[in-house]
Amino acid sequence: MIKQKNLFRLILSIVFCLSAGYVGSFAVTQSIDTWYANLAKPPFTPPDSFFGPVWTILYILMGVALYLVWIEDKKRKKVTDALKIFSAQLLLNILWSIIFFGLHSPVGALIEIVSLWLAVLLTITRFSRISSAAAWLLIPYLVWVTYAAILNAAIAFMNI
């Protein structure tokens, strides 16, 4: 059974991550049917309707991972450092949407997504020192960011 304090932390962690997706979605929704629709895309591009559910699941997994690290009070210094790295990667996540969709810059987003990928990998590494379950919950995110980087690169090169 989750204690009330921890239930609050779980909910807050998930809402925090979903909020990042919400912020990033502003840039996406303004460009998805206009600018993005007119880009040349590779054949392995999923339908637009696929992205929302995938990102929602990933943000929920990130939130649970964040919670599992946050509740480890006995490892306070490690937790604080891991949470800073997690926050940085979440900021990079938002920034990618702004660069790609908001600024209409696949090349700029491609450069940025390398930093995002490294930050996710570093987050997994730091989380693994605190909670192996938290680290494992971020593996689908790393896989998706890898796929997104490949897709981003293909779009950038096809639209130069």
Summarize the structure.
This protein is mainly α and 160 residues long. It has helices at 4-31, 48-70, 76-102, 106-128, 132-137, 139-158. The longest helix has 28 residues, at 4-31.
Structure in words:
It is a single chain. The chain has 160 residues and is mainly alpha-helical. It has one domain (4-158): Up-down Bundle (Ferritin), CATH 1.20.1260. The chain contains 6 helices and no strands. The longest helix has 28 residues, at 4-31. It is elongated, with a radius of gyration of 16 Å. The chain starts with a helix and ends with a helix. The model has no long low-confidence stretch (mean pLDDT 95).
Write the layout of secondary structure elements.
Blueprint lengths: L3 H28 L16 H23 L5 H27 L3 H23 L3 H6 L1 H20 L2
Helix pairs in contact: 1-2, 1-3, 3-4, 4-6
Output the keywords.
160 residues; mainly alpha; Ferritin; 6 helices; 79% helix; elongated
Alpha-carbon Rg, integer: 16 Å
Sheet having the most strands: none
Instruction: Count the DSSP helices.
Output: 6
Structural class: mainly alpha
Distance between the termini: 54 Å
- Secondary structure: number of strands: 0
- Which percent range fits the helix content? over 70%
Oligomer: single chain
* CATH architectural name: Up-down Bundle
Order of helices and strands: HHHHHH
User: What form results from the Cα inertia axes?
Assistant: elongated
* CATH homologous superfamily assignment: TspO/MBR protein
Work out the strand percent: under 5%
> Number of folding domains?
1
Low-confidence stretches: none
